[in-house]
Amino acid sequence: MKAAFESFVKAVGAQAGVENLEPEGDSCRLVFDDLPVTLNYNEPADDIMFYCVVGTIPEEDAERLALFTSLLEANFFFRYTAGSTLSADTGSGLLALQRVLPAKGVEETEFLDALESYLNMALLWRGRCGGQADGDAGTSAETTSDATADSPATQQGWMKA
Fold it and tell me: What sign results for the dihedral spanned by CA atoms 110, 127, 156, 87?
């Protein structure tokens, strides 16, 4: 239900102090503590995906092996991802964190709680994967002018919004 997605985006804006926040088509790109995060509505599946880049794949073999082991352990039954999934794209060298929620049957407070949990994990993994240091995910948000142009998901053909 795209209406639910639009409502959730407005709720995120209201909580973050961004008036009249609306998606551009099926996407909304936000920046939380210098971390670009995309919310994307997938109509055929009627779900909403959060995704962001948390780092890059190390070039050194030992460092890469240690990081990939850490990512796999974190993904095991969502042990250290709070319901999200960590992934690597060797073509681009990017490490991403994504989470999918149904658009239907989720209350606004559940959505906001899931997004906050996701942001906390994204900031934590950004710190662990060589991105910027961990920070407080709930303090500010701003939109970018183009919801998808700079998105690694769009650039790598993961999804089109």
Answer: negative
What is the tens place of the pLDDT at every residue in 21-55? 999 999 999 999 899 999 999 999 999 999 999 99
| Angle between the N-to-C axes of helices 108-128 and 2-16, in degrees from 0 to 180, rounded to the nearest 10 | 70
Residue 43 tokens, joined: 């109509």
Residue 149: in which H helix or E strand, if any?
A: none
Q: Are 98 and 47 in contact (CB under 8 A)?
A: no
134 φ/ψ angles, rounded to the nearest 5 degrees = -60, 155
Class of domain 2-133: alpha beta
What pTM was computed for the model? 0.78
